[in-house]
Amino acid sequence: MKARVTVTLKSGILDPQGKAIEGALKSLGVDGVASVRQGKVFDIEIAGSDKASAEAALKDAADKLLANTVIENYRVEVLS
Amino acid sequence: MKSAVLVFPGINRERDMARALRLASGHEPAMVWHAETSLPRGTDLVVVPGGFSYGDYLRCGAIAARAPVMDAVRAFAGDGGLVLGVCNGFQILCEAGLLPGVLMRNARLKFICHDVHLRVERSDTPFTRGYNAGQVIRVPVAHGEGNYEADEETLKRLEGEGRVLYRYCSADGLVDENSNINGAAQSIAGIVNERGNVLGMMPHPENHVEDIMGCTDGRGLFAGLVAHLERAA
Fold this sequence. Notes:
The complex is a heterodimer of chains A (80) and B (233).
Chain A: E1 2-9, H1 16-27, E2 39-45, H2 51-66, E3 72-78
Antiparallel strand pairs in A: 1-2, 1-3
Chain B: E1 3-7, H1 14-25, E2 30-33, E3 45-48, H2 69-78, E4 82-86, H3 88-95, E5 102-104, E6 112-120, E7 136-143, E8 147-149, H4 152-160, E9 164-169, E10 188-192, E11 198-201, H5 219-232
Parallel strand pairs in B: 1-2, 1-3, 3-4, 4-11
Antiparallel strand pairs in B: 5-8, 6-7, 6-9, 9-10, 10-11
């Protein structure tokens, strides 16, 4: 099964990288960009076909390693 | 003082640290590989040195913090053993949950590599007893992610319990925005855990311990640890 974990900074956490990207987009003339927050995407292949256990494993992975829950939120999706 | 210096792939300050420890204590530190599951018998001090463990992949210190040896460090700290983390070592201790908060990207996004001044906030701890409270010392920093952040509640506790031991300041000890090199909350350069036996700091005291380095202000930290352990023995 294909799965995806998306890790984003919690709101209120300063994101200097997002700010720099935002500035770069503005200087490139990309219109309509109000603000940018950057994060990470993990595409994970899960063995087996039980969706519930896959979700539990992904949540475990995110809690233990993929996200630092002091500053980050994550979202788990089993795609297929 | 019997010290153990942890070694992770990508760490590059472990020999500087070992040298500083040897100069201060007269004992050769044990170098402990990350895959070990125990610390050498009789270890007084565990040091997590600086560098770029696992190439800073995922988040600085995140992968090293989950290495087998860290369980032994957690148990050692739980028994009251002294742990010092410098630079990447500070990041690793935060990721391991031994210290609160997180080291974020420097506010101005630049890697900072130069000497800074630190104000020693108190002298009655194992990590600062080689200095006087309020003393200003000069030590180098070299980091891209040293911007200490924690939630408001944690910051309040750190301040209220006197757990901020080192703060970025000007040459004459002024703590302000200009001297806060990386945007850290409350100019925090080094903090201890609740029990006071685990210190994490971004600057490198081990790089200012010999005359040839142009400054010896870092000696006090190591001399203080040696004195503390001798007194405890």
